[in-house]
Specification:
The chain has 455 residues and is α/β, with parallel strands linked by helices. 28% of the residues lie in helices and 21% in strands. It has 2 domains: 3-57, Urease, subunit C, domain 1 (Roll); 62-380 and 392-429, Alpha-Beta Barrel (TIM Barrel). The chain has 12 helices and 17 strands. The protein binds zinc ion.
Length: 455
């Protein structure tokens, strides 16, 4: 019997700081058969034959749900693979990963592409794993079969994606994709940058971060979001804006919501914790699209988070090999225009956000809402994931909110030792991760399951 099917010992996990949906308090959590069976007053559960873990002042959080991860396998496994990505996830307190449909070859734009991924991921996932599909020009007929096969929705790009096998959609293609997704009830998730604005922006290749930032202006995001919202209004599609970097899109989202458009948005740890002012010239570990912007913009993103305008903070973990990043440390040119765009941070999202959130007066409950409950609701997993609640999967994280560590890229589990957080001191350490009641050991056999859309 595979480990994932074997019974799990009954356990009581006790902490002075259990983060529940209605706030943080001392509690005992009883776990049986991989589910949370009971939540009781701290110290009140008779342990009997159960295994007791007393965390003391270390907090107990629900496992994080990261709905934006580029695993890249098969096809570009040298960038990242299922084993390395899901080990990094588990070590970072993430217990559910939803994989993006591109950078793997084939992309997840057909049922065959999905099957290829599911087959190769079998037996190498340390956390639970689901899949997004992709909507590209010409695959409208593939969307319903993919939806039926259990993908959580469909990603499209409004500007070139960076890989040839995943072209972007414009005009009639966008209209067709959203019309079909409205018909079948799928969630459209969108990379919103406008190709015309990008083309018109000043292009000065080189090592200066300011030049790169000028080549991907705020207008590129707001123009694309405006166009998308128009199409969503017309087609009735449910849309989700991926990795919002520019606060300029926030008023557009608010207006669309007021008009009854079904739109949600996410942002990422790098937009909330890093800033253009601190990006060293030539350090292409910081390159991503849309780009990390100024501190003043970052403050506006935090204000929007506090106001509930983002449903989720997710990693957009999108690594590549160090040579494609053109890192100077590895003999590369450090040219921001030519380097692969993507931030590797799957293992670091929780401490990165907690470090900054705490400084800004936010609680662990806020972090859990943004990184666990919110993303779970985005993909329809509320009820099994995203909360410490009776009947939910016992996906749990022991998190020391006062633990401090310095980021050593070589000590991270993702495949290539590249991250913009290298050398940073972060607050908050993941001590133990449980998946369906069982402690995850990244050096032992994996027992993550593949999960499919249920509604
Ligand atoms: Zn992405």
């Amino acid at each position: 019997m595979p480990l994932s099917e074997q019974p799990v010992a009954t356990a009581v996990i006790r902490s002075r700081r259990v983060v529940l949906p209605d706030g943080e308090r001392p509690a005992d959590v009883l776990v049986r058969d991989g589910k949370i069976e009971q939540i009781a007053a701290h110290g009140s559960l008779l342990v009997g034959d159960a295994h007791l873990t007393d965390l003391g002042e270390v907090a107990l959080l629900p496992g994080l749900v990261d709905t934006h991860v580029h695993v890249n396998e098969p096809g570009r496994t040298e960038w990242e693979g299922f084993a390395t990505a899901t080990r990094a996830a588990a070590a970072g307190g993430v217990t559910t990963v939803i994989d993006m449909p591109l950078n793997s070859i084939p992309p997840t734009t057909t049922v065959d592409g999905l099957d290829a991924k599911r087959k190769i991921a079998e037996g190498q996932a340390w956390v639970d794993l689901g899949f997004w599909g992709g909507a590209i020009p010409g695959n409208t007929g593939d969307l319903e079969p993919l939806h039926e096969a259990g993908v959580f929705g469909f990603k499209s790009f409004l500007a070139p994606s960076g890989v040839d096998e995943f072209p972007h959609v414009e005009g009639a293609d966008l209209e067709a994709a959203l019309t079909e997704q409205a018909r079948i009830g799928a969630l459209a998730i969108i990379h919103a940058e406008d190709p015309a604005v990008l083309e018109a922006a000043p292009q000065r290749p080189g090592t200066h971060y300011r030049d790169f930032l000028a080549s991907r202006p705020d207008d590129a995001e707001s123009a694309a979001v405006a166009r998308l919202l128009d199409t969503a209004r017309r087609t009735g599609a449910r849309v989700h804006i991926l990795h919002v970097s520019s606060a300029a899109v926030l008023p557009l989202l608010a207006q669309a919501r007021a008009d009854g458009v079904q739109v949600t948005a996410e942002t990422c740890p790098h937009y909330l914790t890093l800033a253009a002012e601190e990006v060293p010239d030539g350090d292409t570990a910081f390159k991503c699209c849309p780009p990390i912007r100024d501190e003043s913009n970052r403050d506006l993103l935090w204000a929007a988070l506090a106001a509930g305008e983002f449903v989720a903070i997710v990693s957009d973990h999108s690594p590549s090999t160090p040579d494609l990043k053109l890192l100077q440390k590895y003999g590369g040119s450090g040219d921001f225009a030519k380097a692969w765009g993507g931030i590797a941070s799957l293992q670091l999202g929780l401490p990165a956000i907690w470090t900054e959130a705490r400084k800004r007066g936010h609680s662990l409950s806020d972090v859990v809402r943004w990184m666990s409950a919110g993303p779970a609701s985005l993909v329809g997993l509320t009820g099994t994931k995203g909360a410490i609640a009776v009947g939910h999967d016992a996906d749990l994280v022991a998190f020391d909110p006062d633990g401090v560590f310095s980021v050593d890229p070589d000590a991270l589990h993702h495949r290539n030792p590249v991250t913009p957080y290298a050398g940073k001191t972060l607050t908050g350490t993941v001590q133990t991760t449980w998946l369906r009641g069982r402690v995850v050991d990244v050096d032992a056999e994996p027992f993550g399951r593949q999960i499919l859309r249920t509604r």
